[in-house]
Specification:
Elements: E1 5-9, H1 15-22, H2 25-28, H3 39-51, E2 55-62, E3 65-73, E4 81-88, H4 98-113, E5 118-124, H5 128-136, E6 140-151, E7 154-164, H6 165-181
Helix pairs in contact: 4-6
Amino acid sequence: MDAMIDLRDLVADDSERLFAWRRQGEVNRWMSDQPPQAWGEHQAAFLAFMADQDRRGWIINRDGQPVGFLSLTGLTNCNRRAEWGWYIADADARGRGVGRAAEALGLDKAFDELGLQKVSAEVFADNEAALKAQAAAGFRREGYLRRHALKDGQFRDVVLLAILAEEWGACRARVRKILASAQLIAA
């Protein structure tokens, strides 16, 4: 049996966990910005995130254990669109459908709970796992930005992806059925 995935609201006690996760090589590798080098820098950014009405974050749990992070930015946009990002920090949870389950749960939050019209993402062009996961959730490619992000001294290409509320509505039942059959989310 696979593990059940859920999202829980980010709380103050998550700060240390996020600091450690964000500094992991396998997480940092796919992030466009650099991880915080010092605890104080991280804590200031974390507190700003928690206080910002424009952003929201959730811890991705696998059988009640924290394994990753999902966030939405741009929630106060008058156009009802936001950008998201997520990662699976626990190596044992990668490649097991946890990210896909977290995406479905996150899209439910974005569209049903928060009333967004569009969720977009920027993904490094060589991050095949994330591109596959986003496509499986119904994201469509909207653009390709050449040499868009400077990471570790190299310019990297970025793929722009997005999903609209009605697109998620059209594939939601199918995606959730697959995830529920795999016992990754509740039916």
